[in-house]
Amino acid sequence: MTTIKSTAAQMADALAAGSITSVELTQQHLDQIERVDSAVHAFLYVDKEGALEQANAVDVKRKQGDLLSPLAGVPLALKDVMAQKGIPTTCGSKMLEGWRPPYDATVVTKLKNAGVVILGKTNMDEFAMGSSTENSAYGPTHNPWDLTRIPGGSGGGSAAAIAAFEAPLAIGTDTGGSIRQPAAVTGTVGVKPTYGGVSRYGLIAFSSSLDQAGPCARTVLDAALLHEVIAGHDQRDSTSINAPVPQVVKAAKKLDVKGLKIGVVKELGGEGFQAGVLNRFHESLDALVEAGAEIVEVSCPTFDYALAAYYLIAPSECSSNLARFDSMRYGIRIGDDGSRSAEEVMNLTRHEGFGPEVKRRIILGTYALSSGYYDAYYGSAQKVRTLLMRDFSAAFQLADVLVSPTAPTTAFKIGQNDNDPLAMYLNDIATIPVNMAGIGGMSLPSGLADEDGLPAGFQIMSPAMKDDLMYQVGGTLEAALLSRWGAPLLSQAPVLAGK
Asked: Which of 79, 110, 121, 192 is catalytic?
């Protein structure tokens, strides 16, 4: 029997077999959103009528015998950083309140062409700047495992929607870990594809050299199915890679790591990492060894500087990208009553439209790019980035994939780091190197930490355009852990489903 707790692959099979319609499946998820989202706050906008229309269109095509994609009729939640024609798109900011794009992002076009049903837009840190989804102008999202805790960020809405069974699939974006870190703390699967593997056209930019859209799901196979839908070359994105999409679905089903070398990154563990997170990480390594993999230790010394370099490069690019929100061309306009100059209106608009974290990063980035400081800060950070990429290259000579805990701790309490931005930034210490190098990264559940019974994540990193390797390792590890647990990790969650 297909329920909202089924995997996306199971839902797709049931739809293809005719045992459920897309309208019925979509309505089940809309009902779940109605039941639990007042507590979780995963969604900023639910497109009830539009979702049911999309679902009905798939059902009609299926009855007509049309050839449909594997995920046709399966519901999905969309992070509110993706432009969707006619649907409110805010980036979690007052600056874009009420804006309805006149076009679709390429990812959205691909989803629509595949018949994936878009339920609505999910909550996020404003302009994707944050590690907790507390920085949304519309209030924080809550972790379904414990409503007093954060669901990760910036894509906490997408991860929480999956964990609360409001959607089986979601789209996130990952600039420094914003798909993988939420996946880790909600017990779900999140993948950052190789930079350029998924089009950024229609993705509202935070940091153009780091941003990457990717799949969020409850299983590795589900993530792979969605990955193949959204990936591929796009002429409208100058950074898009013109190469075949890696066969990630085939890799996720392979369940074989015999002969593969798994590199444990020396610098991503130990001090600062919660004991329970490390325990689950080492148990996952043991499971991979039992499956036939060889574990080797690798050292990437420049990873110690990745966080500092990232928080110069990302704010610098943010400062440039968000300059367009000037009250003249985009977004809201404050104080334009005829008595003020254009500069005064611009200042009022940016003061009211941007939240504290966005302002902090704009100021930091503008300073780093200013005359006399560019070479000392931004230029030096780019040099560190080059050294970091060399470290990755050397490590991949010794191992097929690299691994680490995804996040140093489990989900912290909402409000815990309000007065300590640095503590917040440190949550991405293990995920940022992947974005800096433009390679692929995945997080999947490794179990529950001893201290608090909350999910921990296992991160897999693969060379550029070899995303299939992380799916192969991830699928194998997932199967091994499931056989140990006897049931999916989310089945142990005190989720709101059914209550």
From this structure: 79
For residues 273-283, one letter each, b for 16 or more C-beta atoms within 10 angstroms of the residue's C-beta and e for the rest, the string is bbebbbbbbee
For residue 403, give the H/E element and its range. Answer: strand 401-405
pLDDT band with cut points at 50, 70 and 90 for residue 328: confident
Find out whether 481 and 473 touch, Cβ atoms under 8 Å.
Answer: no
Place of tokens 């690798």: 298
Instruction: Supply the pLDDT for residue 425.
Output: 87
Separation between Cα atoms, residue 195 and residue 191, nearest integer Å: 12
Residue 276 Cα to chain centre, angstroms: 23
Catalytic residue among 69, 93, 131, 154: 154
What number does CATH give the domain 8-303+385-492?
3.90.1300.10
- pLDDT digit string (tens) for 35-54? 999 999 999 999 999 999 99
What's the CA gap between 310 and 315, in Å, rounded? 8
* Model confidence, pTM: 0.97
Per domain, the residue ranges of the chain are 8-303+385-492
Active-site residue, 79 included: yes
Q: Which two tokens stand for residue 382?
A: 């780019």
Tokens 């095509």 sit on residue? 61
